[in-house]
Amino acid sequence: MGKKVTPYKDSKLSKKKQVEQMFDNISDNYDGLNRVISLGTDVKWRKKVVTTVSATKPQSILDIATGTGDLAIQMAQTNATRIVGLDLSEGMLKVGRRKISDKNLDSRIEMIQGDSENLPFEDNSFDAITVAFGVRNFENLDKGLEEIYRVLKPGGIFVVLETSVPTKFPYKQGYRLYSNFILPVIGKIFSKDKVAYSYLSESAANFPYGNAFNNILEKIGFIDVKDMPQTFGVSTIYIASK
Questions:
Q1: What pLDDT was estimated at residue 33?
Q2: What is this structure's pTM?
Q3: Distance CA 192, CA 238 (A)
Q4: Hey, which residues does 109 pair with through a beta bridge?
Q5: Which positions does UniProt annotate for S-adenosyl-L-methionine binding (predicted)?
């Protein structure tokens, strides 16, 4: 992985605590701002994740870094009898719980505060595990992935949706312009946390995407690893098994 990127460069807190603080700060307007920043394409990407997971007919699903629960809520379309959303930020979870209640899904989706690097579950607990735009926020990427591997059932599916960097002209240049200049400005205008969206942009640029991330997954022990770039490569869906 590239250099260590944290939200608040002058803070003495760990990256984990900084990420928790940042998402608590932006939780109230996170959903709306996300739709604007991604031009709505994040909704389409999540649908592909749901379709991929649904095809395996899971009975239990864990969505890590669930945030306000968008992906966990969409997973209700599957026949899973147990759906758990886990996140560091209680502020994000509160928003998610309201959304779940509004959709009358309280009996199907449980939202819990927890650490991806120390999951509160037994070995081999879930048929499917997902992470959408969250693995780049892990303080220790290997440790987080090892925990995911531990609680995933043998034969289970692991799907990651994460930002990546386009490699072809002109998408590469356009992405850099948007992520380095436009996205942080939008974040500063509409978010009360003025550094959050600069961090999200910088952390995306430093994440080991594509084959680099595939290699990390295989090193942890995952099998049948593959990646599927989305929308000219601005995000990538990774699929693996145990």
A1: 75
A2: 0.93
A3: 32
A4: 83
A5: 68, 87, 115-116
Q: How many Cβ atoms from other residues are within 10 Å of residue 206's Cβ?
A: 15
* pLDDT at residue 207 is higher than 80: yes
Rounded CA-CA distance 87/63 in Å is 9
What does the block give as tokens for 41? 């394409």
DSSP 182: I
Q: Does 87 appear as a known binding residue?
A: yes
> What is d(CA 136, CA 160) in angstroms, rounded to the nearest whole number?
11
68 is in an annotated binding site: yes
Instruction: Report residue 156 as tokens.
Output: 């289970």
> 116: annotated binding-site residue?
yes
| Interaxial angle between packed helices 211-220 and 141-151, expressed in degrees from 0 to 180 and rounded to the nearest 10 | 60
Tokens representing residue 178 in the block = 């948007």
Sequence-distant (6+) residues with CB within 8 A of 81 are 59, 60, 108
Interval 211-221: pLDDT, tens: 999 999 999 99
Tell me the pLDDT tens digit for each residue of 166-185. 887 887 788 788 777 787 77
